[in-house]
């Protein structure tokens, strides 16, 4: 994982503060939590529209605390062989415990584990993966077999090949191991996963407002040779643009400058206006309203 600094993420100051509190504080200041009788959170869920920096925010938090960052997606997890997906979940948690402090990041978790009541062709696999994930989050269900490195001691869980019986489950502490998940569809997640004690913090990552769009444009245009470009005007004219859309807008403006002449030495406001004619926002008013309603129901 390439390091990401907080300064590289424009806007979202409130969300940054919430993520720092939920992710950084337990790892950086565990003694403060212990002094106040607070259990360290086991899991954090980020939800919001696509393209709004959820993954980048998690990477910035991992960089800040110098934690091991283990990322897992549905494409990496699912296997045509029975039991492989559950085994991979076990391996990931093992590695995280051995390399603590660590952050396990499940991107698009709704594609990995959905509601158990939902009927689909891969429902059986999803239910087994969900069960395995819940067990690991609770600190149980560590099954080791010949395909895993049983000779290695798992940090904090005190598991070695000498005290294991093949196929049995053992108790292990997820100390300094935090699960962070991101989703665009929190309504598809199983209630057993998002209950307190497993997912302790649920944070909404909203689309950028005008002030945030201005900060994001400053970040993405920082290395561009701008000339007479009014970023405040651009931030006003980019309603419903996500962070990814704004990055694409800056890229298109630079390409328009090169289209005018390969010898171009600057990007002007006209190039951005041309880019706005081709780059459309990925968000819609109905989409933003849907997430706003989710936030109201959650609060």
Automatic annotation (TrEMBL):
GO terms for molecular function: ATP binding; ATP hydrolysis activity; polyubiquitin modification-dependent protein binding. Keywords: ATP-binding, Nucleotide-binding. GO terms for biological process: autophagosome maturation; mitotic spindle disassembly; retrograde protein transport, ER to cytosol. Residues 40-209 form the AAA+ ATPase domain. Pfam families: AAA, AAA_lid_3. The keyword Chloroplast does not apply. One of its GO terms (cellular component) is cytosol. Belongs to the AAA ATPase family. This is AAA+ ATPase domain-containing protein. It comes from Mytilus galloprovincialis. The lineage of its organism: Eukaryota, Metazoa, Spiralia, Lophotrochozoa, Mollusca.
